[in-house]
Design goal:
Neuraminidase, mainly beta
């Protein structure tokens, strides 16, 4: 491995706004270089050595959206404010088969349904589908197809489902508990990742639940709080535990099924306190029974210095993710674009929300990215798609969390800083 160029110096490097991809040391960047259409690609050999002394606490200073501030999208796209506030904490968003948008308002403990458009581009209908939930996040419709019978909701502590038929704006009954206790329940109130996503395999036979770690990098050999955490867990749709599907993913916040390959993918938050440019967050296909390194290793055979000498037998088993992002991006919900509105070269690509994090001297993230795919496989690049959520002096007014594709092919984005929902439309103008 070699040391990367210091980030301060990188801010002086030219950034190409065309299709050219910034690689090598130029792939490390901050928010000032994030512009719609800019492409980046980092590979493992670009990574610097760990530097615990470089660790900083630089959490975002949130400010109200300034007058005139608006998300920036590529040429030909238009951004509208679909819901202007009114949530406590809008997080994951998913589209029902009939086109309704289901939003997890996690802090409120609610699932909210949005429907339709007014003449000025606002949500025509906003209804509370269910209340009394425990930090809901993941939402999935089952069985797969045009006429689901259930809405599954992944709470922090459990998975429940509500009886559902197309068009329901309110739950018709009480939730049925499918998974009564998710790992980490007893310890959760002391900290740790609380988001839980839920998706079903393409054939509908498997239910995948993502459970983040309880810590930054605790040795799981000695910390019982990490039992079945930093994992993707497989259950049956009826809630029977099957196995650990994949391990060593510190916090697989967003799950998605690749429509071409049928493979599970994850948008993952990696560990902190090894420097500005370590360890990269990532988006990756998830191999069954695969191991992704946390907490002892990262990005293949690279040992975390805080666990030097531990588990040498795992060194050659660590899978390198498909797409390395910026470290401390806080990559959240992801999806694959299957709509017809955007240009044809977007078909099959992934989108992901980058929430931004605290452990970086120079902010990065606070955007939505596009991940180019070819025949269902990542190229390793990613592209800035929706930016502009940071003021010129580095203060943050917007933090993307969730992304979903509407039935008309447009894109919706939740933002838990403004507590709003944005709508991205392709007009070609």
């Amino acid at each position: 491995m070699r040391y990367g160029t210091p980030l301060l110096a990188l801010s002086l490097l030219p950034v190409t706004l065309a299709a050219q991809t910034n690689t090598g040391s130029s792939s490390f960047h901050d928010w000032t270089q994030e512009k719609p259409g800019v492409r980046w690609k980092t590979i493992v050999s670009d990574l610097p050595e760990p530097n615990e002394a470089e660790s900083v606490d630089n959490g975002p200073t949130l400010v109200p959206r300034p007058d005139g501030a608006w998300p920036e999208a590529p040429a030909g796209f238009k951004v509208q404010l679909y819901v202007d506030g009114g949530f406590k904490q809008p997080r994951l968003i998913r589209t029902a088969p009939n086109g309704d948008l289901f939003v997890a308002d996690s802090e409120a403990g609610e699932i909210v349904v949005l429907r339709g458009l007014t003449p000025d581009g606002k949500a025509a209908t906003k209804e509370t589908f269910a209340t009394g939930l425990d930090h809901p996040f993941g939402i999935a419709f089952y069985p797969l197809g045009p006429n689901p019978k259930w809405v599954y909701v992944a709470n922090t502590t459990s998975v429940v489902r509500f009886a559902y038929k197309n068009g329901d704006l309110k739950a018709s009954g009480q939730p049925e508990t499918i998974v009564p206790t998710l790992p980490g329940y007893a310890q959760l109130r002391g900290g740790g990742h609380w988001t839980r996503d839920v998706v079903f395999s393409k054939d509908g036979r498997r239910m995948f639940i993502s459970v983040g770690s309880a810590s930054n990098v605790d040795d799981t050999d000695n910390n019982p709080n990490e039992f079945h955490r930093a994992d993707v867990l497989e259950y049956s749709p009826e809630g029977k535990f099957v196995k650990i599907y994949a391990s060593g993913l510190r916090n697989c916040v967003g799950e998605a099924i690749n429509p071409i390959t049928g493979q599970l993918w994850c948008s993952t938050n990696e560990r902190d306190r090894l420097g500005d440019n370590l360890v990269p967050d990532y988006i990756t296909s998830v191999k069954e029974d695969g191991f992704y390194g946390w907490p002892w290793w990262y990005m293949g055979p690279h040992q975390d210095p805080r666990h030097a000498g531990k588990h040498p037998e795992l060194k050659d088993k660590v899978i390198v993710p498909d797409v390395l992002l910026q470290s401390h991006f806080a990559s959240l919900e992801m999806l694959f674009y299957n709509g017809k509105q955007f240009p044809s070269d977007y078909t099959g690509d992934a989108f992901a929300a980058e929430h931004g994090s605290w452990n970086r001297a120079h902010r990065a993230g606070y955007e939505v990215i596009r991940v180019p795919m070819k025949n269902g496989h990542a190229t390793g690049e990613y592209e800035d798609f929706l930016t502009g959520f940071v003021t010129p002096d580095g203060k943050v007014w917007g933090r993307p969390v969730g992304v979903t594709v509407a039935n008309d092919g447009s894109l919706f984005v939740t933002d838990d800083a403004t507590r709003s929902v944005w709508h991205v439309i392709y007009t070609g103008k």
